[in-house]
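Protocol step 4 of 5: obtain the predicted structure for the target chain.
Materials: sequence only (see below). No template structures provided, no constraints applied. The aim of this step is simply to have a reference model before the mutagenesis design in step 5. Sequence pasted as it appears in the construct record:
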Amino acid sequence: MNRKTVLITGSSRGIGKAIAIKFAKKGYNVVINCIKNADLLEQTKKEIESYNVSCLAFVGDVGNYETAKDLFGQIKKLYGDLDVLVNNAGISYIGLFSDMKIEDWNRIVATNLTSVFNCCTLAIPDMVSNKSGKIINISSVWGNVGASCEVAYSATKGAINSLTMALAKELAPSNIQVNAVACGAIDTEMNQFLEDDELLNLINEIPSNRLGKAEEVADFVYHLAYKNGYLTGQVIKLDGGWI
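Step 4 output (structure tokens):
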């Protein structure tokens, strides 16, 4: 049986991990990555392998082109071509824009946006040659509307949304679909800084009256990767009706 291969960046925990587990359950070779937490990534690898699939765990900053190139070299050697790319690596910065230092800006742009450029440019040539491939970018509703005190994060997610729409047009003739999932408030460690009353206020703002689950994002990402040959260039909100 010729297994398909998926790469999920930023997949040691949270949404990325949930997506990796989903694809493992569906029988894919799974490539996972994180910037530094090798122990957490190794735990995720063991969990993936419990579904009797192969897993490559790569620790490194895919916001750095040479590091991303090294990762793709390992994927090629181990599995051949990549079928699905899920650009999930992301960090947030919460604070006043006027307090932000250039180092913070550069780090968030490299992690959230340059990583998408790096992985897309490395994945696309084989996808074009195979006339097949799926690229799914994990975005945020703040990329659609912007968030106070999360200006840089909103800027990177807005750029990902535009990149998704433009790249989809460029790659559609090669039968490669590019879509983005604009997540709302998902129950992950990224939101654990909130106090109980802040969390309650947030939930009250969401018509579905709850946070989303990482597994719900994973199910949707898998659906986009598995079907929908005509759906491309879309930024789809998954936010319980919030924004």
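Step 4 remarks: Residues 137 and 180 are 4 Å apart (CA to CA). The domain at 5-238 is CATH 3.40.50.720 (Rossmann fold).
Proceed to step 5.
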